[in-house]
Amino acid sequence: MLDQPTGPTLLGFDVILVGSILAGLAAFAVLMAIYAAVTIKDPMAKRVKSLEERRDELKAGIVTGGSRKRASLVRRSDTTDKVKDSLGKMNVLEQSQLQAVQQKLAHAGFRNKELAVIIIGLRMVLPVVFGIIGFILFYWLDYFQFGEGSLKNLFGFAGMVFLGYKGPEIYLSNLASKRTAEIQKGLPDALDLLVICAEAGLTVDAAFNRVAKELGRAYPELGDEFALTAIELSFLNERKLAFDNLAYRVDLEAVKGVVTTMVQTERYGTPLASALRVLSAEFRNERMMRAEEKAARLPAIMTVPLIMFILPVLFIVILGPAACSISDALITPQEGGG
């Protein structure tokens, strides 16, 4: 006689056990959501220290800029100096390459330009390290069991070396793109607040500082950039240099347009509020068009998740009870006959 099943089964799985596991995961997700909602932290808190350091450096007169020299806060350390000396001896540290990596670091939100030396050094070290790991995995241990002399081993080894070389650049590009997208979201709101501050009679640096405080929680990246621009406007000898630094740090054409407008108003004395109002309207129209474009692509994007995830679950919910009843009806006569 067959053993009595402990509970209803579906496709060989115990329905009660699977349901208990899913209920436990749902309860854990709810607890994590409550914890995240209760322990809300100020997103600008971590950035205040770096901004204060920038203000102190500018107050002390450490950073001074001429008409053709960009003012920048450079922090040196023994590690970066050693790496820079080693790369200089190997003749692999070019100034153009260093400047390109520094700008990518600025786009990703890193203020320390000396980290560019570390990134270039990692481009040389990581391919060797990943190549050794790939050789051990694909050739020595044959971990994936592709067979000796297989092209898969060669492709896997080459992929590891390529990942070691392009990994730091991909990581920086990912951070920069996410940061740029967050700044782009809050730029129309920031321009509206700048218009209000300009019409209220605030100076440009005070307006930037006020906007940074108001939008710091909603858009911390944008608030960080505006706060740093307000500090540089207050202490740099040339105000144009502060706007140029803002365009240098943010990889966004809209910010470059705002910087151009601010520089022109500073130079020719044109009304700031009217110019910013026009820019704000343009940016809002662009944001609306991007939202409409995403909405138009949504049906095509949802087709694959609908077929792969939603429809199977729907079939299980509809046909599951019937399958359990049929399974019980087929098992019961066999037990009685046994």
Element order: H for helix, E for strand: EEHHHHHHHHHHH
Overall 3D geometry? extended
Unreliable spans: 1-5, 63-76
Radius of gyration: 30 Å
| Main beta sheet | 2 strands, antiparallel
The structural class is mainly alpha
Give the count of helical stretches. 11
Widest beta sheet: strand line-up: 1-2
Percentage of β-strand residues: under 5%
Q: Report how far the terminal alpha carbons are from each other.
A: 5 Å
- Roughly what is the average pLDDT, rounded to an integer? 76
Determine the fraction of residues in helical runs and give it as a percent range.
Answer: over 70%
The beta-strand count equals 2
Protein described:
- By secondary structure, the protein is mainly α.
- Helices cover 78% and strands 1% of the residues.
- The chain has eleven helices and two strands; from the N terminus they run E-E-H-H-H-H-H-H-H-H-H-H-H.
- It has a two-stranded antiparallel sheet with strand order 1-2.
- A hairpin with a 2-residue loop joins strand 1 (9-10) and strand 2.
- The chain is extended.
- It starts with 8 loop residues before the first strand and ends with a helix.
Helix and strand arrangement:
Blueprint (H helix, E strand, L loop, with lengths): L8 E2 L2 E2 H24 L6 H16 L17 H12 L5 H14 L6 H26 L10 H49 L4 H12 L4 H16 L3 H11 L3 H16 L3 H66 L1
Helix pairs in contact: 2-8, 3-5, 4-5, 4-6, 5-6, 6-7, 6-11, 7-8, 8-9, 9-10, 10-11
